[in-house]
Structures are given as structure tokens and as C-alpha cells.
Amino acid sequence: MTSYLLDVARNRNIEEYEKAGGYQGLGKALFMEPGQVVEEVKKSGLRGRGGAGFPTGMKWMFMASDPKSPRYIVCNADEGEPGTFKDKALIDKNPHVLLEGMAIAGHALMAGLGYIYLRAEYPEERGILEAALKEARAKGYLGENVMGSGKKFDIHVHMGAGAYICGEETALIDSLEGKRGQPRLKPPFPVNSGLWGMPTMVNNVETLSNLPFIMREGALRYAGIGDPSCPGNKLFPVSGHVERPGVYELPMGTPLREIIYEHAGGIKNGKALKAVIPGGISAPVLAPDQIDCPMDFVSVQKAGSMLGSGAVMVFDEDTCIVRVALRTLEFFEHESCGKCTPCREGTGWLKAILERIETKQGHGGDIQLLEDVCRNIAGNTFCPLGDGAASAALGFIRHFREEFTEHIRSGCRYHREQGQAQP
Amino acid sequence: MILITINGKKIELDGPVTIFEAARRNGIDIPSLCHHPALELWGGCRMCLVEIEKMPRLQTSCTVKAADGMAVYTETPRVVAARKAMLEFLLINHPLQCPTCDKAGECALQDLTVRYGAVAGRFEEGKRTFPENVDDPVIVRNMERCIMCTRCVRMCDGVQGAFAIGVVGRGAGSHVEPFSGGRYNCEYCGNCLNVCPVGAIMSRLHRYTYRPWQMDKTVKTICSFCGVGCTILLEVRGDAIQKVSPAFGKGVNNGLLCGRGMFGYGYAGSPERLKTPLVRKDGKLVPASWDEALALAARRLLEVKAQHGGRAIAGIAGGRCTNEENYAFQKFMRAGLGSNNIDSTARLGLLHAQDLLEGIFGQGAAANVIRGIPHSDAVLVVACDPTRTNPVMGLQVRAASKAGKKVVAIGHAPGLKRHMTHHLSAAFGHEGIALAGLLRELLRQKKALPGENPEFEAAIMGFSELPSPEEVRRLAGVPEAALTQAAEALKDVSTSSIIAGRELAASMDAKRNFMLLAAIGYVLNSRFFLVSEHPNEQGLIDMGCTPDMLPGGRPLALQTFRERCEHEWGARLDPEPGLTLMEMFEQAGGAIRAMYIMGENPAFNLPGRKKIKEALEKKLDFLVVQDIFLTETASLADVVLPSKAWSEKEGTYTNLEKRIQKLAQATGKNHEAGMEDWRILALIGRLAGLGNMPYASASDIIDEIARVSPLHAGLRYEDLEEDGMMWPYKGKPLRMSGGMQPLPAAKAAATLDRREEDTGQTGPALVIEKPLFHSGSLSRHSGALLDIMGGPEAKMAPGTAAGLGICEGGSVKISTAEGEMVLKAKLEKGLPAGAIFAGNNFGDAGALGLFGYELEPGSKTPVPRAEGLEITPL
Q1: Which range marks the domain in which residue A412 is found?
Q2: Percentages helix, strand, coil for chain A, rounded to the nearest 5?
Q3: Which residues face B379 on adjacent strands?
Q4: Is the pLDDT confidence value at B478 over 60?
Q5: What is the pLDDT of residue B854?
Q6: Does the beta carbon of A341 lie under 8 angstroms from any beta carbon of chain B?
Q7: Which of A186, B115, B539, B824 is a good FRET partner for A119, with 20 to 30 A between their CA atoms?
Q8: pLDDT score of B754
């Protein structure tokens, strides 16, 4: 297996990156017509790595067919989903692959300017990116005349302000424009009316970072990696009760079991696996008997969850699932933007019910109530944040209903076993 | 053509509209809390969810456009369940204070809860709490009741353009706050609270006293503050106005209001209203009976007439009086007393501006629809700030800006600061020079003139010596680049709107200014709008309250028309034009021995105050004033006759579009004190045996106007029901079918008089500030407006203040040849350097008292002058 994202060079400076073939993809792209680059990306079968898995080439075609200008490339580096730290690792280890990817996108979509919307909690990555930008400009990969092609492309780094919702592309654009970050109505989509009302391509860090390989090695080679329905390498950030937590670059479709037990070294201290969240906190939890599932967009969905960001969160047998559910809903309540009724009011309500179950104040009917509230949220929200909260909560109940019932009846077993007082 | 079905009903649509709108048009009610027709789409409350065939999720009907073949269901069990769920969500944090909430009875959330049934109350935890905020004098915020529909914020940002409030916090903790904190620092338009569906933002004016179901009636009428003529609803109980409500979808304003219109109504119920007639006895005004006061007025007027002739009596009509009252007034003066000395404050600029414009383009040149402004490609605002003087017209300029149209302002227009694309910051009184420079640049940059009127184009091309950008910079202080860029932006527009202020006409260069304005208007295919400060300023002109024009804008000099009036009025008319406004005072004690003033306050509203007061007090033999308050003028009168406030009478106003609109009587049924102005005139006329005014109602007078004025021929009171009626009504316009007619005299005036005016002013300049919250005589009696802005101030830029040694809040003495006054200094960033702004709104501190004047020779328009200005910090 070739790593083309993380393990490209020993350190992140531009010379090392160039030695490993860096910026050759951009060079090749610049020799092609913009439309041909879009075609190439389409042929590669690349699907967005931010969570939704939308075919990137198709999204690019939508923007390519809109004649308005100026046009923008926006890199979504607002990596706010708990459990997800792949973009951070990518920027830390290999910032130039992102810059090259953005420059390729800029050429393909005839944009002269790119923004990296960087998560507020990543100040270190800001420094790394700024340093890399300086290098790339000095070498002529960015600026007024990209690699002597006469084309202009430059990139600004813009820090977010700490809201998870700004990872949603239209909320991100509002925030970038200086407004309160809240999702916009779609249509119009950002490809037609994005930043300042102009055609804008919002792509995830990892998505953009796949472009240099596609351009350098060709769409066909790329399409041959991993699962044909969603080819390429995927970054899997693994966290929780494993021996070797970290970010793993593996072909799309690698089974979840292999990720946990081979790459991440299995469950910590030899304990048994209790549950695993396969794709970030919005993805419903999977039970141990489901981990033979290949990690690609289609298979994980079939298993009743979603690949999302590919963030694998592992829980061992000593984990209180009610507590995990409560922590999850605390997150969603805090991050609900407040725009739509069901998410604004419902996430807080779910949290409140879970809180009382976890603290032995729950009562009969609470599980039913949780499910009811989830169903009233799901499908009725403005954006997927509320859906994510509801499906995550429902996932915990689906697989661990017994544990919820037990909590209501006799409180939290794990607190007792660990000799802790009831919270 | 789009065909859809809603609940099985076939619906045809001409163009793409939302499902919500398609349903509404077909009488199918879909509930919503966040949607509002005046605001941009939101889709947040999720109450309008509907089921659409082939779509798995429920869809928000307020955002989804109807597409051909769609089958929509609005009340299926699934939809109803979802709506109940949304209501349950909303109510978990909404306090159940309906019994004490002022919104109860007209609360959208309450109504929907009734419609879909109350829920079981499954929420066990405590509700979110916010302390109620009563830091503001007129707006109270109760954020516990807020349902985050954001209508208020979308109104403030998207429509009002004030950007004064925003959502703070996140998730369920989100709430709305003014950026200024507790007290609002905003335009107080009140439009935010008018769109609040619940009781989260409310007016303090009717706190705990307003229950919608206890109102006696809701009366649709016209606002009494400015020349826009907004349609408003008066909620009335116990013969008092409890509240002003908007009428969305109706009127010139489409439901939008401004601070004066929304909160200023209190003057009508002020305890300071005149309660009885007053007569002067031993030098003092004392209460008198109507019989006594009317008899005295009739007797003294007859005596003056007998002794000195009718021409010795002068009359001033009122821009706040109705058309019917102003018509009756000029008839009383002309036919009854035999005097053509009739004028009004339209003389301060509007009349001259209109004369000049109509002289070029024909009658009705400024009769254009305010709501059309955002539809033109560009708006040119000259020497005025419509967002202050005519706020709702200002909103249309902001709407144009929001729609991406070009907005060019010449002169000081702070309310458009964030909304203009180009600013030509001409020094005060030098806007005409910027106009000339703009015309030169347009002619230079444009490929060709429209070609519609060769004669007019020849006149334009004959304009000689238009100043270059460099000269404009030197003479008016406009940067060269700003001028050329503005011309660049305007040169290719196909339609435009021009809004001009009265200062352009109250100028020794008025003729030049309007020639230039007309030329630019021709080049840019413009519609003209003239700002107008009083609700019936236009009506003053149309009703013949001018010394040389009879009703309908027909010249007194025209014998056929004079005869028509003589026939109707049964009296001979003096063919000689009378005196103009300022001349009346100048000749008081000489040619003028008595004055009759109706609803106007010249001792406060005119420059040259000292002399005017002296004339009124000492030089006249007799002065009658009709008003609702004991104004500065009324307090000098021999007889004061209390009239009715705008909410207490019927009649019509003509707005700045030349739209005639109907007032409706809402209060004053039991108000014995005041009478309609026309009724007072008719009674005096009867007592004196003068004039022939057998009227029983305002509608009788409209009938007579329709007979006398060719402009209003055939007009009936009933024609004015919905949104009034626009010029040329049912009459014949005088405008030629060929369009504009350049006057020969105008050609002669086309040469720009380039006096070497140096704007590198040596000293500061005094400018009359027109604040948003006060007009003067009326607003001073409105408690709410006084709470918002309590007193006079001298505003200036910090740099200007520093140069004069003035600090924030310090006292400043301003003295001129006319007088002096001490004001509190208020420093405001962004004001033009060297200018001191003082308003003419508060009694003795009215800054017009510092101005003398000079008459523009042709029109006798007073051009205010502050000679010998000295500013000293105290």
C-alpha cells in the first residue's frame, strides 16, 4: 500500500515534499485545460472526505458550468467532530499536499483565491500552514503567476471561532463573510452562490489532499486503490480504548476489525470490545458483532451507521454507554446553532433526559420519551446536525436498551463497580 | 405555467413561487412562525412542514418552490404530528405567561397551540430563563418568550438596514440583543416589534394596558408626521389611541413604519392640548367660550377689512391640516376676506422645487411611486437624507442598495452611509456644484444622449463652463475620483430615481440647481422625488394655498379659471397675486394689519424668528391662530381656536407622490374642545357674513374641490378607499404628451455661475439638523419621542470640537446676528468637518432662531443665513 497523504516525507518542508514528487500534480494540471482537470477528477471516482461522501467530480462539474466570477476555493479545515483529528494530522505532517490540492482546484475551477477555514482550536496548524504558504509562494507554486503559467492563485488562512456548525459548508461561508455562522437555505448551492454570492467550492482538507496524487499518477491508478465504489486512501483517526490510538492511512474499504485489532493494536489491556462509533460522533454506534464491516460509504451505511469522517471511537467493556450517550448529547446541545426549532430545543431536551437517567432520576417511559423526541427531531431539522444528534442517540438505545433500563431501575453499574459515588 | 395540486386542489401558477405562497393565494392556510412576506426566507421554525409526493422528508413550504407536477398535502396525519412536535419543542422553553403577556390574543404561538391542541407537558426540567430587559424607554425585551424566528433581526438587517440587533448565544441559549446592550442605539422604527409573532419584543407604551380583544376598534388611517403618508392602524379604546399597528401589504409603506409614526402618536392625547378657545384680555390669553371667541374673531376681521381692505389681512395655511381644511382656508381668505395673501411653509423649498421641475418637465413631474425606487437601476440622492426626513422613503433607497443598485448621494446623508455606493461629499450649500461636475462627467463619459427630445438635448449641450472634477474639488470639496467614479457608475443605467431636498431650492442658485438636476434626470431617465416634511405639504400647493395659484395649480392670473372659482364661490376675486410667506411678516404693521394662521407655527418654524415674533406680537392689529397646542405663535395671538388632531377628524392628505389618501376619525368623538379647522372657518364665515361654506362634512368639501379644481375633477371621497388615488386622479394632467418642455428662461440660466466660492471654510458652519425622532411642534408633546431623544444638542465631529475647545457633554454657546443659545455638545464620528449640527425641534432651543434669511428674488423662498456665527465653549 502506498501512502500519499501522511508518510510522504520525513519532515514537512517543501524540499522534502518536492523530492517525493510534490507539486508535480499541479504542474501536470496546469498543462491541461481546466475542463480536462475536472474530467480527470470525475474519472478518479474521488468522493468527498468530509462526511457526506458526495462525488467530488460531480460537485466540480456543477461549479464549472456556472460562468460567474470571481470564484473561490474554500478548504474546510473546521474539523470539529469529536473523535476526528485526521485533518490536523495531515496538516501537521504534510501541509504542502493540501496547498497543492487547492492550487489544482483553483486551476480546474478558474478561481484565483482560496481560503482555508481553520478550526479555532488549531493555532499550531495555523503556523504550519502560514510557513508552508510562504515556502510555496517563494517557489512560485502560489501567487500571481503559478509555476509560470500566467495563472494567479493564492490562499488565505482564516481562523474559525469555535462553532461545530461552521463545518457545514454554508454556515462556514457565512462565518467567513463575518456573519453568525448558521446554515443557509439550499438551493442555491455554494457552487453557484457561495462566498459573497459567487461560485465557491468547499472541499474538505483530505479531499483536496487527494488531488495531487490523482493528477500526478492519473485517475485510473487512483480508481484502482481500495473499494471501486469509493476509491483512494482514507485517513482513519482511531481513538478510545485501543493500544495504539492515532491516524491511519489505509485504502478505503479496510474492514473495521482490521483497523481496530491490527493497526490500532487491539483493545487496551486486553479487554473486550463493547461498542464502536465508526464515523465520528454523528454516526450511530455499532456492536462488536458488526465490526467485519468494510469501512466505505456504502458498507457502513448498510450496517446501520455511516462512514462520516472515518473517525473510529472504541469503547471497552467497562464503558457506561448511557454516559457516552449523555456526553454525545451534551456536545450536540452545545453545538446546536439555534436556527431551527427541533434541533435547538430537542438536543437540550434529550440531554436533560439522559442526565436524569445517568443520575438515577430516570423513570419508566423515559426511553420511550427519548425515542419520541429523537423521532420528532429526525428529518425535521434545517441541516444534518439535528439528524446526527437524533440518530446517534437512537443508535445507543437500539444496541444498549438493556443498559438504559437497568440505569432507570438501579442506577449506573459502572460507577458502583469503579467505587465511584453516583454523580 | 406551473401546475401543482395542494390537498388535491389543482392550482395554476404563472411563475415560480413557494408552496406557502401558492397555498396562501388559493386560500389554503399553512401555519408559520418565522416566515414573513416582508422578509427574506428563513425556514427555521419548521411549522410550515408539508408532505410532497415522491419526497421522503417533510419539506418547509415557505422555502420550497412549487415545481410542475408537485402534489402537496398540508394537513396529513404525518404533517399534523410534526407540527404538534414543533409546538411541543417551542413550548418547553416558552413561559406560559399568557394571562399577563400583552401579546395574548394576537400571539401566533398561542393561536397555533389552540389550532393543533395543547400537548401533555412531557418536559420536566426547568425552563430557560432570561431577565426581562426594561433598560430602554420604549422597547421591552422578554427573551424567555423568544422563539428564535429571527424576524426582528431580518427586519433590522434586511429591510430597515439599521443593523442594530443580532442573535447572541448559541443553541437554546440564543437570544436577540441590541449591539448597544440594554438601551437600543437604533432608529427606533419599531418594525422589529411589529414582526415579532410572540411577546418577546414589545412596545412599552401600552405595557399591561393593551388587550387586543378589549379594543373598541381598529382604524386604518394615514400617519401625521411626514410627506410619505404611511398607512397605519390605530388601535383605539376609550377614545384614546392605545397603539399604532402596521398594515402589512397595504399603503405606500407596505406595513413599514418609522420612529415618529410608530411611537409618536402620544401627542394627540397629550394633556397639553388646548381645551378651550382663548382670547386676549388685558394682554393675557384667558379661556373663553366658543361663542365669544368666534364672535370676536369675526368682528375684528371685519373691522380690519373695513378699515384697511381685504389685502391688509394675510393667512398662513398648515401642512398638517387636511386638503379640505386648506381648501376652505384659501377660499375663506380669497372669497371671504378678499385677500390673496395666502402662503405656507411649502414656501421654504418644496413649492419652488416643484415649480422649477414642473416648469421643465410639466405638471406632475415629481408624482412618482415611492415603492418604485428600488426597481430603478440607480438612485441619486441630492442635498437631503430621506432616511431622516421621510424615513420610509429612505427605506426604499436602502432596498435599492440591497438589491445591488447604484446609490449615489450628494451632500450629507448619514442615514445612507452604509447603503450608498458613491458619496459626493459636497460642502453644505455647494451640492449644486457637485451636480454640475457630475453632469459634465456624464456628458463626457456617455456615448450618446437618449435622443428623445432634441431641443432639450441642445439646451443641455449648451450648458457652458461646467466645472471639471478638479474645480469641483476646489469649490465643493468633492474628491475628483469620487466624482468620476460616480459618473462611471451612473452612465449606463436605463432608469433611475432622483430624490432632492428642499435646500436645493432654498438657495440663491435654485434655478441653476434644478436646471442641472433636470439635465441629469433627462440623461439618466429619472423619476423625481421631492422630500416633504409635512403630511400635507403637497396638498397646500394643490389646494391653492399660494398667493398666485388657485386650487388645482391653476394660475390666479388666468381669467377663465378665476371666473370659474368666482362662480362657485359667489364672490369677486382679486386678480392681483398676494404676498408670500416672508413678505407678510416683513410688511406687518404696514400693508398687513391682521393675520390668520391655521395649524402652523411661524414663530418657531421660520428663519428670522426675532422679527417674526416682533411682527406677530407688536405690529399686527389682530392675530387669529388655530392649533391643537399653545404654540410659540398661538401664545402671541389675540384669539386662539383649538382644532382637532389628525386622529380626530376626517379628510384627506396628499403625499409627496401626489397620492391623495383618506384619514379616518379614530378618536375625539367626545372631544368637545377642538373643532375641525374647516368647521371653525365656516362658523366664522357665517358669523361675519363672509364666504359661502355650507359644509356638513369633509366629504362635502371634496365634492366642491372636485367641481372647482380641474386637477381633481370628478374625484369622490369614496374613490379613496384602498390605497388612495395617484395624480392625475380623474382629472386631466397638464403634462404635454411629448414630455418635457424646456423653458426659454431656463436656457439663459444654464450657464453655471462660477463664483469663486472657497469651501476651505475659515470658521465653522451651522447646519440645521433634521433628527429622526422629532419634527418640532407635535413631537415635543409625544412622551415616547421625548424619552428617546429628550432635548436639543449641538452635534459635531470630534475633530471639529477639538479645534473649538469643546468636549463631549460640555455647554456650547452659539451666537449669530439673530441671537444666541446654549446647547449641550455631542460628538459624533463621521460628521463633516467644521459643521455644527443643531436641530429646530425644542422650543427656545430651536436652531432656526439663529438664522436670518435672504429672499431668492424670483420665488421669494427664504434662504437661511447664519451671519456672524460664533461658537464658544462655556
Answers
A1: 321-417
A2: 50, 15, 40
A3: B407, B497
A4: yes
A5: 96
A6: yes
A7: A186
A8: 46
Subunit contact B44:A180, Cβ cutoff 8 A: no
Q: List the one residue out of B478, B408, B407 whose CA is nearest residue B437.
A: B478
B629 grid coordinates:
397646542
Asked if B165 is an interface residue toward chain A (Cβ–Cβ < 8 A), one would say no
Q: What are phi and psi of B589, to 5 degrees?
A: 90, -20
Q: Single out the residue of A250, A225, A193, A210 nearest to residue A72, CA to CA.
A: A193
At residue A160, the pLDDT reads 96
CA B655/CA B645 separation, integer angstroms: 18
As beta bridge partners, residue A202 has A74
B698 three-state secondary structure: helix
- Predicted confidence (pLDDT) at residue B747 exceeds the cutoff of 50: no
Confidence of residue A1 (pLDDT cuts 50, 70, 90): low
The domain tally of chain A equals 3
Tell me: do A301 and A342 sit in the same domain: no
The C-alpha cell that represents A112 in the structure block: 484565483
Q: Looking at residues A349-376, what average pLDDT do you find?
A: 96
Q: What per-residue string of b and e applies to B717-737 under the rule 16 or more CB within 10 Å gives b?
A: bebbeeebbebbbebeeebee
Look at residues B487, B501, B548 and name the one whose alpha carbon lies nearest to residue B340.
Answer: B548
A185 to B63: CB separation less than 8 angstroms, yes or no: yes
Q: What domains appear along chain B, each with residue ranges and CATH number?
A: 2-75 (3.10.20.740), 125-269 (3.30.70.20), 291-344+545-719 (3.40.50.740), 350-530 (3.40.228.10), 765-873 (2.40.40.20)
Q: Is the ipTM above a cut-off of 0.85?
A: yes
Mutation target to probe the B interface, by most B beta carbons within 10 A, among A340, A359, A373 is A340
Question: So what's the pLDDT on residue A420?
Answer: 56
For residue B6, give every residue at least 6 positions away whose Cβ sits within 8 Å of its Cβ, in sequence order, or none. Answer: B19, B22, B23, B26, B28, B72, B73, B74
Alpha carbons within 13 angstroms on the beta-carbon side of residue A362 total: 29
Question: Residue B559 carries which DSSP code?
Answer: H
- For the CA atoms of A106, A107, A112, A113, the dihedral, rounded to the nearest 10 degrees, stands at 20
Query: Could you tell me where the beta strands, DSSP code E, fall in B299-403?
Result: 313-316, 342-343, 378-382
